[in-house]
Amino acid sequence: MEIHKLIQPLVRETDSKIVLLVIDGAGDLPVDGKTPLEAARTPNLDKLAQESALGLMDPVARGITPGSGPGHLGLFGYDPLQYEVGRGVLAALGIGLQLGPDDVAARGNFATVNENGLVTDRRAGRIPTELNSELCEKLRQHLKRIEDVELLIEPVMDYRFVLILRGLGLGGAVADTDPQETGVGPKPAAPLVQDEATARTAQIADRFSAQAREILKNEENANAVLLRGFGKLPPIPKMQDIYKLQPAVIAGYPMYRGVARLVGMDIPPLDLGEERLEEKTRVLAEYWEEFDFFFLHVKNTDSAGEDGNFSKKVQLIEEFDAHLARILEQQPDVLAITADHSTPVPLKSHSWHPVPLLLKSHYIRPGEGERFTERECQTGSLGRFRSVELMPQLLAHALKLRKFGA
Ligand code: ZN
């Protein structure tokens, strides 16, 4: 049964407040006997773990390695197997663009190709955002539309941009042109389903890529574009409607803001600059009265895992621990700390391993473990479940769910 159908009639509004802290990619594997969570010195998290219920969650399903998009949708109570959202849509929402139901969005990379048309750098030497903005402007001047399809080209960050195809009769099921490796040419934008709308969209995407190559041909690094994550905005119910919550997102990276906006979260203004926890906890305190659900995202732990940098991940977890006190000062009625997926240092990538979960409320039985670690969460009373079942538990602990049946 779809979980929203069960929850929606039971939900009631109350004054209680829920905080969901997501340490991106926090789950890990032992290196020399300890995971980063085990190796880190975390006095605040330890104390909290002793007062909390513990468990493990599978973000999508057992054995499935999730991207951050599905990982987060699950945490917000949206089954990632039911709601598939392209990265293009998430990136577009994340930078504040409005998408219509007919628009097709894709994520773009500026890239480098050699004289034979083979990709030598998928990220164009990681060009700075300023140059990205100039290049997007250049593309916009020459590429306003193809046939009757309007093109919107907006910079995101570093070498990444968003392309929106706006017109009627377009289809989102188009394959990536990014070959995901160097030494080969960009792929054609192949339709993934056989219908006229998709075939036409793929053609327009290819014409965009070819014309962009021509416009960018004299650029030193960014002389080509690669597209991926094509898709349309899926119809998706808002958290306000399903959970009767006023939700807010406190996250720096556009993709997380995008996935949060997709489910209806507000975005209080955040000084984006670097990923700074001081700023995020400040915003949490400033907007405490205005919302009753806060999703606060910690990004860099995932990057440390992807870089295979054990000590950096430990250091970031310790930094998070140091800021925890400020968050606890707000005295949320329900607090959950978890991850959207694991990013183990030995794998240098996302993985299928379940993520640790800590749940604190006025209504738990404490004394399950000494620390917030993968191993201690394994024996916690929450057991192991799919992360899509987290939201109902947060609502229950916030006393926001009526009883089911007479
Ligand atoms: Zn992630």
Please provide the ordered H/E string of secondary-structure elements: HEHHEHHEEHEEEHEHEHHEHHEEHEH
Query: Counting H and I runs of at least 4 residues, what is the number of helices?
Result: 14
Across the major sheet, the strand order is: 9-10-1-11-12-2-13
Q: Bound compounds, please?
A: zinc ion
Number of strands: 13
Q: Could you please describe the fold and organization of this structure?
A:
By secondary structure, this protein is an alpha/beta fold. The protein is built from 14 helices and 13 strands. The strands form two sheets. A seven-stranded mixed β-sheet has the order 9-10-1-11-12-2-13, sandwiched between helices. Strands 3, 4, 5, 6, 7 and 8 form a six-stranded antiparallel β-sheet that branches. Strand 3 (104-113) and strand 4 form a beta hairpin. The longest helix is centred in the middle third of the chain and has 20 residues, at 196-215. The radius of gyration is 22 Å and the shape is globular. Bound molecules: zinc ion. Zinc ion binds at residues 24-25, 68, 71, 302, 340-341.
In short:
The chain is 32% helix and 19% strand. The protein has helices at 3-7, 36-39, 43-50, 68-75, 87-94, 129-142, 196-215, 239-243, 254-262, 277-286, 300-306, 310-328, 374-377, 390-397; strands spanning 18-23, 53-58, 104-113, 119-121, 145-146, 149-157, 160-166, 224-231, 247-250, 293-298, 334-338, 355-360, 383-386.
